[in-house]
Amino acid sequence: MTTKNLKLKGNSLVEVLIVLGIISTALVASVSVIVNSLIKVRVNEIEDSANSLLIQSMEIAKTPNTVVVNDGAINNNSVGTAYYFTLQNASNQNTLQRVTSSTTLINSCPANSPYNANNFLGTNVDYNICIQLQIIYRGNEQYEINSRVVYDINGRVSLNTIQGFRYTPFNIP
Question: Cα dist. 144→8, 58, 82 in Å?
Answer without folding.
Answer: 86, 11, 9
